[in-house]
Design goal:
This protein is mainly α. It contains 15 helices and six strands. The strands form three sheets. The protein has a two-stranded antiparallel sheet. It has a two-stranded antiparallel sheet with strand order 3-4.
C-alpha cells in the first residue's frame, strides 16, 4: 500500500517528467532471466492482472502496468492464457507478450495427455513450426536451465517432460523456444510438495514420471488412475513384473489393442513382461492427473486388472491370479458389469 501511495504522489508531482515515469517501465531486474509462468484467466481485469504481475515481482508497481495499458490503448487487450515472463523484461515486452492476436503471428497448439515425443514432433511438423531433425537434436543436446533435468538421460529426447497442454506459439519460434516453453510448464506444474512426496516414496523424478506415463497410457477412465497406480506400486513393492501392455506398445510404436505372445517376448529394456521394475525412461508425456495418481495411489491390495470388454474404458481389478483369470473370462465374454 505504501509503495502504491508513493508512486501516485510521484506521478502527480512529476507527471510531466517523462524520465521518471519511463523508469517505472524498465525491467525490474535486467540481470535476472528466470522464466516465471503467469496464468491469465478469462474475465480477469487489468487491475487483477497487474496485481498478479506485481506479486511475482515482474513489474515495478501495479499502477505502472495499468497506466501503460491506458496510454497505449490496450485496456481489455490482454488475452487469457499462460505466459512466460521474466524480471529481465521491460513493461513493454511483458505487455507485448500478453497481447496475443493474429497481428503477432501466433498459432494455438494442443498437445494431448499421453502423447509420445514422436507424436508431438509429428504435430508440430505438420503445422510447419519445426524442422524434425533439428527438434530431436535440441531435445537431446540443447541447453536448458531447469534443475529438474539434472540426472535425466537426454538420449530419450526428454520423453515424459514435455508437458501436455494448450500453447500459443509464435510462428517464427525456434525449436529451442518451443521446447523451453514445454519444459517451463512442467516446472510450473510440478509443485514443491510433489518433490517431498517423491522422496517419501523413495523415487527419483525419472522413475516417478515413468510410472506416471504408464498410468497415463493404461487408464482410459480418469477415475481409475489412482487404482491402476496402486496396482503398479503393489507389484513394484512385491518384486513382480509390471506386465504393462503400454510399455510394449511403446516399443512397437503402435497402440495395438491385443498383444501377441511374440510381442510380449520382444527383447527391449522397455518390455515389462520380461524385465523387472520400471522401464529406463517414460513412455509418454503424462498430464497432471496421472502424475498425481503416481504420487498418491489408492490404498488397495490389487495386483491385476483387465478391461471389462473390448469396447470398455474401465477395468476389473483383482488381488489374486485366480480372481484375475475369472475376470479375463468375463471380459472375453463381453459382459460389462
Amino acid at each position: 500500500m505504501k509503495k502504491t501511495i508513493l508512486l501516485i504522489l510521484i506521478l502527480l508531482l512529476l507527471g510531466g517528467c517523462a524520465s521518471v515515469k519511463e523508469s517505472l517501465y524498465d525491467p525490474v531486474d535486467p540481470d535476472d532471466p528466470t522464466i516465471i509462468l503467469i496464468e491469465v484467466e478469462d474475465g480477469m481485469t487489468p487491475n487483477e492482472i497487474a496485481g498478479l504481475l506485481d506479486e511475482k515481482s515482474l513489474i515495478s508497481t501495479s499502477l505502472a502496468f495499468t497506466n501503460y495499458l491506458k496510454e497505449n490503448g490496450l485496456d481489455g487487450s490482454i488475452q487469457p492464457g499462460t505466459y512466460e515472463l521474466s524480471p529481465s523484461m521491460s513493461l513493454a515486452e511483458i505487455v507485448n507478450a500478453m497481447v496475443l492476436s493474429s497481428d503477432f503471428g501466433t498459432i494455438t497448439i494442443t498437445i494431448p495427455e499421453g502423447y509420445e515425443v514422436r507424436n508431438i514432433v509429428d504435430l508440430l511438423e505438420a503445422e510447419g513450426l519445426i524442422d524434425r531433425e533439428r527438434f530431436l537434436d535440441v531435445l537431446e543436446n540443447g541447453q536448458f536451465d531447469y534443475d529438474f533435468l539434472e540426472g535425466i538421460d537426454r538420449s530419450h529426447h526428454l520423453e515424459g517432460f514435455l508437458f501436455p497442454d494448450t500453447y500459443e506459439f509464435y510462428l517464427d519460434a525456434s525449436e529451442e523456444e518451443i521446447i523451453d516453453k514445454l519444459l517451463a510448464n512442467f516446472e510450473y506444474r510440478f509443485k514443491d510438495e510433489f518433490y517431498t512426496r517423491m522422496k517419501e516414496l523413495d523415487m527419483d523424478l525419472n522413475r516417478l514420471i515413468t510410472l506416471a506415463s504408464i498410468v497415463e497410457r493404461e487408464a482410459a477412465d480418469s477415475e481409475e488412475r489412482a487404482i491402476i497406480s496402486s496396482v503398479f506400486h503393489n507389484r513394484i513393492e512385491d518384486g513382480m513384473m509390471l506386465e504393462s501392455c503400454a510399455t510394449v506398445q511403446y516399443i512397437l510404436k503402435e497402440r495395438k489393442p491385443i498383444l501377441s505372445y511374440d510381442d510380449m517376448a520382444i527383447e527391449s529394456a522397455y518390455n515389462t513382461y520380461i524385465n523387472e521394475g520400471l522401464p529406463p525412461a517414460p513412455i509418454a508425456n503424462p498430464g497432471l492427473a496421472s502424475i498425481e495418481a503416481a504420487l498418491y495411489p489408492a490404498d488397495t491390495d490389487y495386483f491385476f486388472f483387465v478391461l471389462k470388454s473390448d469396447e470398455a474404458t474401465t477395468h476389473y481389478f483383482a488381488h489374486t491370479f485366480e480372481e484375475h483369470e475369472e475376470n479375463i473370462r468375463i471380459s472375453e465374454e463381453g459382459v460389462n458389469e
